[in-house]
Amino acid sequence: MKTRTRLRNLGIFLSAFAMLALSSRLAIANGAPQEAAKPAYTIPEYNAFQAANSEKDPTTKLKDLDDFVAKFPNSTLLQYVYQLYYQTYLQQKNYAKEIEYADKLIAVESADLGSRLQASLARVQAFPAVFDSKAPNASDQLTKQRDAALMGAKLLQQLPKPAAPPMTDDQFNDGKKPALALFNSAAGQADLQMKDYPSAITAFKAALSFNPTDAGTEYQLGLAYLAMTPPQSMDGFWALARAIQMKVPQSDKVKDYLRAKMLAYEQPTCENLLDAQVSELMQLSASSTDLPASYSIPSSADLQKIAQGSTIVTVLADLSGGGDKAKNTWLAICGAEFPEVVGKIIDEQKTDTAIDFMVFFGATEDEVKAATTANMDVKVYLAAPPAPPAGQTAPTPQPDVVRLQKDDGIRFAGTVTKYDPSPFMLYWDGVKVDPTIIPEAETTGKKAPAKRAAPKP
Fold first, then answer.
1. Cβ(296)–Cβ(234) under 8 Å?
2. Is the omega angle on the peptide bond into residue 165 within 30 degrees of 0, that is, cis?
3. Distance CA 95, CA 116 (A)
4. Rounded to the nearest 10 degrees, how much is the dihedral formed by the CA atoms of 94, 96, 100, 105?
5. What's the predicted TM-score (pTM) here?
6. Is residue 124 part of a domain?
7. Phi, psi (deg, nearest 5) at residue 409
8. Is residue 241 located within the same domain as residue 370?
9. CB within 8 A of 111, min separation 6: which ones?
10. What is the pLDDT of residues 145-186, one digit of tens each?
């Protein structure tokens, strides 16, 4: 609403500026003695123009203007006639004709700067109402819109500060900012639709420099970044997050789009981790205009590289170390399967259907032997577990693992599902314990000795 008010005020100012120029040119000094003071038009031209200008009925006004052009096709008053044309067509909501005559006026390089500028503003604002992306000349329409928008921005920067009303340079420059934002944003929209993404980015950034809180322009900047080849993903994610924070229309759908783009970029094994990343991005974008240099989101290639170089030793070291290293490592290995992990049972928690072995894993055998606190929760099912998600295989129950006890060694394969950073605990599911380390069943009333697994890293 504030932007519309400012644009309306600027339009009123430009209209007044143009009419001052018009009145000075139309001022006929009756009986002026100097030849230079004679107007560059005839009395009949002047009278015909004034008749059209004073007409209140739009249809009759347009007829009067048509008559003027037919009688005086080369008149120096044509620039003012074109102004009346597009203003009248705007009154009739005939936006195609409004654009046609605004373009005619803009093309008159000798016309008053204020008149050409006002025509540029009217033309740029009318364009969305008539543009047809499926039209055969759609590209030509977009090119003309972009050029007109850039011309409007150029003319506005050339506009001199008027003597009245009195204002400071800062007030005058601030008054121009809404229209400069509008012109640059319109140029960016045209470039975006023409798939000239670098030019669109330049235009949108210029628009935001004049109006940093324009959610629509921020959103389109994000689209342009993500459409680049290759995409400038981080800049695009940041711009979309900023747009959402600024309450862009349909912000819920924009957030879904942002999440989908981040998912395609990162491809984490555990998709649910993405929600925390989106929340973090939203929080950062709410407190900063610019993308922090230290902030990044790993790509799928980054995560694959981390996963390929990971062992259970490096995973535990990275996760327990915290910071970005832990965050990226977890993104890379969450949901990953490890074929062989060994450790020492510290404790156990049993239910009717499963047993959680509290296990310590260490990098050395001495470290494992000395351990009294677990760093892994290894869930083994004693009975058939709940149905797993689609595409996953349910682990085979191993009721025999109840014969394992405290201080026994354990060797297993399994999938990491989550971790707690403090106190540190890594959780395993889908576990298959190596049957060779499970003690044999009792046969003589005494429990057979356990087959202790060598806790090697």
1. yes
2. yes
3. 17
4. 60
5. 0.82
6. yes
7. -80, 155
8. no
9. 79, 105
10. 999 999 999 999 998 888 888 889 999 999 999 999 999 999
